[in-house]
Design goal:
- The protein has a two-stranded antiparallel sheet.
- The protein has helices at residues 2-23, 32-53, 63-77, 88-104, and strands spanning 27-29, 84-86.
- The chain has 115 residues and is mainly alpha-helical.
- The chain is built from 4 helices and 2 strands; from the N terminus they run αβααβα.
- The two termini are 20 Å apart.
């Protein structure tokens, strides 16, 4: 059951990324497969940043530092995932929209459980 919960969370995260790609200019995702892979890469990069710098600097952290790190992670993930194109402004807007969506529909990743 725990594995299924993680799969559902990644699917929801991919859907959120597709919605963000539809709303935010200069942020495009090629399809659901790219969005799913992007959700995985963002989770892995967030987990690595948290391991190196601590929980206050992660994309899931609070405040301006967490917001900027989130935008940087979104921007950097485009170089790992094919079919994703993000400008720096698009990454900042995407981080803002994802943060707003997360207020109403919290999406955690399997790496959040390790905290």
């Amino acid at each position: 059951m725990r594995f299924l919960g993680h799969v559902v969370r990644f699917i929801v995260a991919a859907i959120v990324l597709l919605v963000v790609g539809w709303i935010v200019p200069q942020f495009s995702i090629g399809g659901f497969g790219s969005a799913l892979l992007l959700a995985l890469v963002i989770a892995l990069l967030g987990w690595a940043i948290e391991g190196i710098f601590g929980s206050k600097t992660t994309p899931f952290g609070r405040g301006i530092v967490g917001f900027l790190v989130s935008a940087l992670v979104i921007w950097a993930a485009q170089f790992v995932v094919g079919g994703v194109s993000v400008s720096m402004i698009g990454a900042l807007l995407a981080a803002l929209v994802i943060g707003i969506i997360d207020l109403f529909l919290p999406v955690s990743t399997p790496f959040d459980a390790a905290k």
